[in-house]
C-alpha cells in the first residue's frame, strides 16, 4: 500500500494529536479516580490490545501484513517502537506531578524534536535519510518555542534535573516509536504496524504497573463513566495516524503535526468542558506556530552557489529505502 500524499497524512496526524489531548485527559481522570496513575495507562493499553485482537479477526490487511513482516526479516530492534509509547505514558504519570504540566510538555517536545531530527538524519523511517538542513532545524526550534508559549500560565513544579532528563528521553522515545512503527508498516501494512506497537507496549506497561504495586493494594473501585475507557480506542487511532504520517513526511514533521493537533485539541477541551478555563490565547498562538513549523520543515534548502568551474546538480528528492516498501 502506497503512503498517502504528505498533506493528507499530516492532516490525519493533526487529528491524531487532537485525539491524543483527549486521551491524556481521560487517562489522567481515570488514574485519579482509581487512585493509581499507572492503572490509567494500563487500561489504555489493554483497551488498544483488545481492539487489535478484534482487528486480527476482521481485517485481512492486518493478517497479511503480519505474514509479510515474517518474510521481511527486519532487524529485531525494528519491532521495539511500542516501548517508546509505553515510556511516555508511564513517565507522564510520575513526571507531571513533579515538574508541572508546562515543564513536562516542553521537555517532552524538545526530546521529540531532537529525536525526530536524529531519526530522519539516520534514515530510520521508511522515507530514507533526510538532511539536517536549516529549514528543518529552524522548524524544530520554532515548534519548541511554540509549545513553550502555549504553556504560559500552566503550573510549574520543582525543576528536578533527573525527572527533566527522563522526560526528554521519553520524548526521544516517542520519535523512535514513530520511526520504527513506520518501518514496520512499510514492510507489512499500516494495520500490522499498529498491531506490533500494542503487542510490544502492553507487556511493558503491565510490568511497570506490577512493580509499582498497582495489583497489591486495596481493591479498586472502578468508575462507571463509559468515556473513561475510551483511551485504548483513541490510542489505536493515534498510532495509526503516526504510521501513515511518518511514511509520507518523516519523523520530525510528523511529530510537529502531532504536537500542533495536541495543542488544538487542548484548546477545544478548554472551551467545551464545563469546568474548563475557556479559550486561551497562548494555546491558540502555540498551535498556529507549531503548524507553521510543519510547513517550514517541509521546505528544501537553497543550493549553495557553484564554485568557479564546477557544476552543481539540482537538489535530489530524499532517498527512499525501497527494500522496505511493499
TrEMBL record:
Domain of life: Bacteria
A single GO cellular-component term on record: plasma membrane
Keyword Oxidoreductase on entry: no
Region (Disordered): 302-326
Signal peptide segment: 1-21
Transmembrane domains' residue ranges: 37-59, 80-107, 159-180, 192-214, 226-244, 256-273, 279-297
A Pfam family assignment: DMT_YdcZ
Keywords, in A-Z order: Membrane, Signal, Transmembrane, Transmembrane helix
Protein's UniProt keywords contain Signal: yes
Protein name: Transporter family-2 protein
Originating species: Micromonospora sonchi
Amino acid at each position: 500500500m502506497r503512503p498517502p500524499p504528505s498533506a493528507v497524512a499530516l492532516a490525519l496526524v493533526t487529528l491524531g494529536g487532537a485525539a491524543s489531548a483527549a486521551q491524556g485527559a481521560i487517562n489522567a481522570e481515570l488514574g485519579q479516580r482509581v487512585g493509581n496513575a499507572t492503572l490509567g495507562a494500563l487500561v489504555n493499553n489493554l483497551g488498544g490490545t483488545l481492539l487489535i485482537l478484534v482487528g486480527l479477526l476482521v481485517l485481512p490487511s492486518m493478517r497479511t501484513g503480519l505474514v509479510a513482516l515474517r518474510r521481511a526479516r527486519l532487524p529485531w530492534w525494528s519491532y521495539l517502537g511500542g516501548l517508546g509509547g509505553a515510556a511516555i505514558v508511564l513517565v507522564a504519570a510520575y513526571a507531571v506531578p513533579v515538574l508541572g504540566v508546562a515543564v513536562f510538555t516542553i521537555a517532552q517536545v524538545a526530546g521529540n524534536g531532537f529525536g525526530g531530527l536524529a531519526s530522519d538524519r539516520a534514515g530510520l523511517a521508511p522515507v530514507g535519510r533526510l538532511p539536517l538542513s536549516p529549514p528543518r532545524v529552524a522548524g524544530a526550534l520554532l515548534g519548541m518555542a511554540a509549545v513553550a508559549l502555549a504553556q504560559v500560565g500552566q503550573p510549574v513544579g520543582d525543576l528536578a534535573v533527573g525527572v527533566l532528563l527522563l522526560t526528554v528521553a521519553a520524548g526521544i522515545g516517542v520519535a523512535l516509536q514513530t520511526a520504527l512503527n513506520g518501518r514496520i508498516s512499510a514492510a507489512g501494512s499500516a494495520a500490522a504496524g499498529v498491531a506490533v506497537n500494542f503487542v510490544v507496549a502492553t507487556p511493558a506497561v503491565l510490568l511497570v504497573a506490577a512493580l509499582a504495586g498497582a495489583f497489591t493494594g486495596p481493591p479498586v473501585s472502578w468508575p462507571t463513566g463509559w468515556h473513561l475507557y475510551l483511551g485504548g480506542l483513541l490510542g489505536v487511532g493515534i498510532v495509526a495516524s503516526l504510521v501513515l504520517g511518518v511514511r509520507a513526511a518523516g519523523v520530525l514533521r510528523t511529530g510537529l503535526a502531532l504536537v500542533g493537533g495536541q495543542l488544538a485539541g487542548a484548546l477545544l477541551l478548554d472551551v467545551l468542558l464545563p469546568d474548563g478555563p475557556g479559550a486561551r490565547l497562548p494555546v491558540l498562538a502555540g498551535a498556529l506556530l507549531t503548524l507553521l513549523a510543519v510547513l517550514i520543515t517541509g521546505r528544501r534548502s537553497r543550493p549553495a552557489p557553484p564554485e568557479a568551474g564546477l557544476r552543481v546538480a539540482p537538489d535530489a528528492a530524499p532517498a527512499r529505502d525501497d527494500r522496505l516498501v511493499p
